Amino acid sequence: MKAHIRKLATFFEETREEMGQSINPPARRVAAVAIIENPYAGKYAEDLSELIVIGEELGELLAQRAVAALGVSGTAVESYGKAAAVGENGEIEHAAAILHPKLGTPVRRVLGKGAALIPSSKKRGGMGVVLDVPLGHKDAAYVRSHFDGMEVRINDAPRANEIMVAVAVTDSGRPLARVGGLTKDQIKGEDGLR
Amino acid sequence: MPEVHIRKKLLMVEEIFHEGGPISPKPLCRAAALAVIQNPFAGRYVEDIAGFMDDLKPLGLEMAKSLIAALSGDPRTVEGFGKGAIVGSAGELEHAALWHVPGGYAMRQLLGDAKAIVASTKKVGGPGTRLDVPITHINASYVRSHFDAMEVGVTDAPRSGEIVLALVMSSGPRIHARVGGLKASEIKGEDGLR
């Protein structure tokens, strides 16, 4: 593996009740996170291909770990998202190199499908920085009930020369979604949007 | 006594491979199980609260079981533990103390009657409050290599009328432990201390 991993973490959340309403089945989501060394920390590199390869590796590793923690088959995953936080000696473009060129394909392979764009966020920050991973329906980006976000934070990461990479998956939308819009049973699934 | 209302459950798992030193052949695993419950005593002073400890016992066992499962499934691989609670603003610190018996004894029971006291911490705080849950060796509190802590917290909890309950387990010493003191191999196992 190209990635030098210091730490792997998973965050599992199950909401059973919201505003006094029982959520049955519970709304469940998982974020799988890797803390890796940034091979380009402290210097400007024109070619970021090493991070692009790392992105591909982490896409598969994190998607597998997230789906396993969610406890469902990949095809039962309803929404997903990805994000990266670069330590202070890196640049925001390093997050882009991990997230955008190659991370998505192995994630979709693990899920069996995934026609929609994987929503993403990125930032640079110090240890304990909060990363809000955006979530959207995996087959149709316009499904309104599944627009959400999941916060992840690790107190000792990213160090200056590290990058924190997260992939999040869910088995449901927001616990009490009721603001209309496209619903999941209306998905055509042709263009990844509707 | 009131029944236990759970709004949300969370599980955080960390797998640590190194922290700048040699990569350990056996990564250190730490896991935290959290439950966000309604505080039945929020908003008023209740003299007699102790009966709620019994109501929390099944939840303590459920959370301890989920930690063992998250680490390896084998209770014999668990070497460290700790517990904690965060009480929302409409409660008092004493409500956190209700967790000592059901949280602590659940872990000790499932870990084969672990001898050491379960290290703990508690506070009153708002949503997103972080808690550094102390970790010590399950059979001898003085084992220096196993003194550790895991930071936990939930973005949207505790709300004012809630309590966040936490249990933590770890699979071994700090990843690069090297400051001497009592070793796990030297435990006498008589008094829970050495």
Based on the model shown, name its key terms.
heterodimer; A: 194 residues; alpha+beta; 60s Ribosomal Protein L30, Chain: A; 7 strands; B: 194 residues; seven-stranded mixed beta sheet
Describe this structure as you would to a colleague.
The complex is a heterodimer of chains A (194) and B (194). Chain A is of the alpha+beta class and 194 residues long. Chain A has one domain: BB2672 (60s Ribosomal Protein L30, Chain: A), CATH 3.30.1330. In chain A, strands 1, 2, 3, 4, 5, 6 and 7 form a 7-stranded mixed β-sheet that branches. In chain A, a hairpin with a 2-residue loop joins strand 1 and strand 2. The longest helix of chain A has 22 residues. The termini of chain A are far apart. The model of chain A has no long low-confidence stretch (mean pLDDT 95). Chain B has 194 residues and is of the alpha+beta class. Chain B has one domain: BB2672 (60s Ribosomal Protein L30, Chain: A, 2-Layer Sandwich), CATH 3.30.1330.110. In chain B, strands 1, 2, 3, 4, 5, 6 and 7 form a 7-stranded mixed β-sheet that branches. Chain B is globular and about 50 Å long. The model of chain B has no long low-confidence stretch (mean pLDDT 94). Classes of the chains: A alpha+beta (194), B alpha+beta (194). At the A-B interface, strand 1 of A face strand 1 of B.
Helix content of chain B: 10-25%
CATH class descriptor of chain B: Alpha Beta
In DSSP terms (H or I, runs of 4 or more residues), the helix count of chain A works out at 3
Query: How much β-strand is present in the residues of chain B?
Result: 25-35%
Q: What's the pLDDT, averaged over the residues of chain A?
A: 95
Main sheet characteristics of chain B: 7 strands, mixed
Shape of chain B: globular
| Total number of strands of chain B | 7
CATH class wording of chain A: Alpha Beta
Any low-confidence stretches of chain A, pLDDT <50, length ≥5? none
How far from one another are the termini of chain B? 39 Å
Characterize the overall form of chain A. Answer: globular
The CATH architecture of chain A can be given as 2-Layer Sandwich
Largest interface: A-B, 19 and 19 residues
Overall pLDDT of chain B: 94
Overall domain count of chain A: 1
What is the gyration radius of chain B calculated from CA atoms?
A: 17 Å
CATH third-tier fold name of chain A: 60s Ribosomal Protein L30, Chain: A
* Percentage of residues assigned to helices of chain A: 10-25%
Question: What's the CATH H-level superfamily name of chain A?
Answer: BB2672
